[in-house]
Amino acid sequence: MIRVAVQDVSDDGLAPEADLTGAGIRELVRASLARFAQAGEVTVRLVEEAESRELNRRWRGIDRPTNVLAFPSDRGLGEIGDIVICMPLVRSEAGGRGSTPAAHLAHLVVHGCLHLAGLDHHEPEQTRTMESLESELLKQAGWPDPWAEERA
To answer: Which domains, ranges and CATH numbers included, belong to the chain?
Structure first.
């Protein structure tokens, strides 16, 4: 079983809309990781820009907030890893993409899970693989395809 903890330390509360609650995030994590892991622990932390910026600076050397960071566990022992999502960026990016904050949050949760599973998007083939899996997983969970417009 995959255990998921959701930590909300953002100013605006857990979900940007009522249709993505902590329970919804937990279900999405489990569904996203089901083909990669049968058991383990994942923490999803919803943060403000200051924490996102500090983590991004410390771990990636980039001194600005970012929408999602994934920290795969190197400790084993049933730990899969942590996902950190910057809620102010979720809200601002959603508007620019013609998406809702909840749909964009769902996308970033899936994106972070795929990073925990070892996928990346530094090369074009890797990007296509990740985007295809994101679309598939979000569709299965009832969320819109974040890449539909780019493919049209």
So the answer is: 2-146 (3.40.390.30)
